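Changelog-linked ticket: 6-O-phosphono-beta-D-fructofuranose example.
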Amino acid sequence: MRQPAPTPAITATASFQSLQAHSASLRDVHLRQLFAADPARFSSMTVDAAGLLLDYSKNRVDATAMGLLMDLARERGVETQREAMFTGEKINLTEHRAVLHTALRAPRGTRLVVDGQDIDADVQDVLQRVKAFTDKVRNGSWLGYTGKPICDIVNIGIGGSDLGPKMACLALRSYANPGLEMHFVSNVDGHDMEATLSKVDPETTLFIVASKTFVTAETMLNANTARAWFLLEGEEKDLAQHFVAVSTNTQAIVDFGISPDNMFPFWDWVGGRYSVWSSIGLAVALSVGFEYFSDFLAGAHAMDQHFRQAPLEQNMPVVLAMVGFWNRQFLDCGSVSIAPYHQDLSRFAAYLQQLDMESNGKRVTKDGMPVDVPTGPVIWGDCGTNAQHAYFQLLHQGTDITPIDFIAALRATHDLPGHHDALLANCFAQSEAFMTGKTGDEVRLDLQAQGLPENEIEALVPHKTFPGNRPSNTILMDQLTPTTLGALIALYEHKTFVQGVLWNVNSFDQWGVELGKVLAKKIQAELTGEARPDHHDSSTNGLIALAKAAKAA
Ligand code: F6P
């Protein structure tokens, strides 16, 4: 069989080389100058789609840079790769899988057959099961073993089987059923499970065991602990009313003792970090109800349609990806900070960490060759305004440049007076401050107006000067709703996809998490005494010895 020709290194492409030359010409241009030179910069550098607005004008790019970035996107095959994903080609090469999270949110009747599987029929079938089950729990007709309705839901899962549902339940708490308390246990650390079990009652608690593979060590241990805790009060026959499972692995669910009737399946073409749209979103559907869950899917679908159809220049995920690529490549930005100015998005940065870093934290191309440029940046962040009082100092005056994504809703979902204006004022003020900075002369004028002596002014000027010229995006929505949350997540999914195409990495595998898992199994056996201590390095040996001594004491 003829192998396809390897994709050329990104640095060998004509558009990359043009970009490199152009970036050098912009190196000493300040964002203030770019704004001064073009009064229409905001309107020409904003994109609207699926209920979101992206303002990327506060990035150190001009129209030429954007044009060249789009040339690069075309040269790297973003359009063909995008179509390959949507149509179910096996673009996850190392696992021989299609990548079809977009099919989970496509409207009923969207025909797609992959490897003989009628994707639409299967997706709709599971959605109907999710609807029937969540309706019953929410209307109180699903009863616990003593005949009481369910009032606590505990989702047991980790990674994509935790981060998505937890983030979305928090984000949509204004739409939630107040009668259902949502809990999430992910960590193998027993403190996590213990803290949750201490708050719930076995008679009225429903556990969702969420695991794509149903072999993840943390989730299996937590699920067994929850089962043992339940059996202190209930009996084996009662488990069916209190344990449901979400997985691709039916046999493992049955082996665990959960009835197949209580199983909500999904498929290997849904990556863990892209799975909140599948039955992994069961906790979300329980919390907000099936109607709002459907709106959540519809919001993501609207972004999918935009991503698939809009020309690259007006394509929000493409623009976000290309500006991010520019910052990573030409401004040497090793991290991106996510700053949602919305408390309900408090887990959004954590969610994006897995989405982006597990997808594009790669060092070899799909052809197995080292990538010749830096790939995925570190993603981190926290909500404004809290972040302002914690680490924004470094972002304003530190020596590294960290691009920031500001995310805000124009209207709040509460009606407390005064708060929302204060919140938005801070959000816009920060993006302005990062962009403009404050020159030494401006600092001098301020201090002179305060009447400070000249020698004190000169001593203070370097400390009070802000370089500015720090890139940021602002993403606005009218309100944080199930629909806009769906669109926002899909925006970042597609951004991640586009960057993966540029770097020619497989954004859909995660082999990097395996080595630690294997070593942990080995060390666990040494800690429990099932295996004799092996020859590790002196540090690992020393740490194991300390843990064994503490256990024996
Ligand atoms: O170890 C990483 C990972 O495979 C993630 O990609 C995934 O989201 C998480 O573990 C949980 O996996 P599972 O849903 O199979 O338990």
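Closing comment: Example verified and attached. The pocket of 6-O-phosphono-beta-D-fructofuranose is lined by residues 158-161, 211-213, 216, 219, 272-273, 358, 510, 513 (CB under 6 Å). The chain has a mean pLDDT of 97.
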